């Protein structure tokens, strides 16, 4: 029986944040500039408010400047676009993040398209998506970046490995597939119309769940020894009536089959904000020169 190793994203993210904080200190000493991250939140979605608070706290802890713009839910699209234009022009801001989802009357694509690609630390602008696709230097979406860091830490070189990404969103699945291709994996992207999903998953040396369906990927879909990265975050009510978070992979079933697996919570989740800070420092270095 295989001994399944736990991939500790929480510990990895803490080490990464400490390294970023020391790089920020050195950057500040060399240039006199503090990297600055502006976060725009429209409305009062409770989950988004928690994320924004955590981002603000961790930005300050990394020694960066944090600018929070909390706008009421009824803010017009033109007002949001005007704020982004101001942030684009502000030399103390090196990264701009618009917290999604936006209220229904605002066109998220129009808002994302207005962000200066050089400050697009979420990597959602079509210029950054296109640069990633053609192999140019780009700001890369944070969650996929975090997944690849964990994979390289676990496996070393990923070259030649069969990777299956389940999910094809612009935020996770597609950019993650691009990054794995850049690491010389042989990449399959699966989705809701894939035939024989269990069979496709069983081919994977690297199996990634980015679906948003609790424990959909069963233990017997996993090739023995495969490395499993679980991006899904799903809140379910257990038999005891208590709420808990589970991933897209049946974690207990994966024990003894997977070579290594990320837990939920404590796997991919903590990597996202750490990579946001890494992207902000990268953007500041490029903007300040
Ligand atoms: N920080 C983090 O850790 C982090 C960050 C982002 C997202 N997430 C989590 O990751 C999950 C995915 O997020 P997302 O934004 O990528 O979601 P999304 O935009 O809803 O995309 C889900 C993808 O899963 C596919 N899918 C749905 N049902 C399927 C099925 N039965 N079989 C195979 N594929 C199926 C969909 O296929 P179609 O395209 O065919 O519809 C789609 O491509 C969510 O649980 C989210 O909460 C976590």
From TrEMBL:
Highest taxon in the source lineage: Bacteria
Binding site for NADP(+): 167-169, 233
Keywords carried by this UniProt record: Amino-acid biosynthesis, Histidine biosynthesis, Hydrolase, Methionine biosynthesis, Multifunctional enzyme, NADP, One-carbon metabolism, Oxidoreductase, Purine biosynthesis
Keyword Oxidoreductase listed: yes
Record EC number: 1.5.1.5, 3.5.4.9
GO molecular function, one term: methenyltetrahydrofolate cyclohydrolase activity
Keyword Phosphoprotein: no
Domain Tetrahydrofolate dehydrogenase/cyclohydrolase NAD(P)-binding: 141-286
Domain Tetrahydrofolate dehydrogenase/cyclohydrolase catalytic: 7-122
Catalytic activity: (6R)-5,10-methylene-5,6,7,8-tetrahydrofolate + NADP(+) = (6R)-5,10-methenyltetrahydrofolate + NADPH; (6R)-5,10-methenyltetrahydrofolate + H2O = (6R)-10-formyltetrahydrofolate + H(+)
Family matches, as PROSITE patterns: THF_DHG_CYH_1, THF_DHG_CYH_2
Pathways involved: One-carbon metabolism; tetrahydrofolate interconversion
Pfam families cross-referenced by the UniProt entry: THF_DHG_CYH, THF_DHG_CYH_C
PANTHER family, sorted: C-1-TETRAHYDROFOLATE SYNTHASE, CYTOPLASMIC, C-1-TETRAHYDROFOLATE SYNTHASE, CYTOPLASMIC-RELATED
UniProt similarity note: Belongs to the tetrahydrofolate dehydrogenase/cyclohydrolase family.
Quaternary assembly: Homodimer.
Function of the molecule: Catalyzes the oxidation of 5,10-methylenetetrahydrofolate to 5,10-methenyltetrahydrofolate and then the hydrolysis of 5,10-methenyltetrahydrofolate to 10-formyltetrahydrofolate.
Protein name: Bifunctional protein FolD
Lineage: Bacteria, Pseudomonadati, Pseudomonadota, Alphaproteobacteria, Hyphomicrobiales
Gene that encodes the chain: folD
